[in-house]
Amino acid sequence: ESDNNTCDLLFALIGGTETVQKDLKEWGISGINVRFTEDEMLRNHDLQYANSSRPSAMNALLRAFDEGKILNKDTQRLLWDMMAGCATGTTRLKGKLPQDYVVAHKTGSGFTTPEGVITAVNDVGIIVLPNGRKMAVSVFV
Questions:
Q1: For residue 118, what is the enclosing H or E element?
Q2: What value does the mean pLDDT take over residues 31-53?
Q3: Is the entire prediction scored with pTM above 0.85?
Q4: Domains detected in the chain
């Protein structure tokens, strides 16, 4: 399951959203903007639009993660296992593919407006085909 409170605890642990931006730059990944925490966006929903990513940038981050370029092996394995075991988004990427495909993914949803419109429905991850070939996929709606 997804827990936005944990996201903010991790931000606090590593030094905030500024640290994430610095790390992305060091890894050579541009096109991802992490400016505000979940708590900040909860207090002001308009802030969510400052946090953004191009699909190609997210795919670059996913590939760097999968290739072991950004995390140590133990942390990479832990994150992979969590993403592969993701129970959310059963009607998104994982739910639309044959069962013999491995989908290590992370879903995300925006806030719901007073009119009942969900501002974002996203899913990003790495799909492993039965032949072992991998694909990074980012869907932002």
A1: none
A2: 96
A3: yes
A4: 4-140 (3.40.710.10)
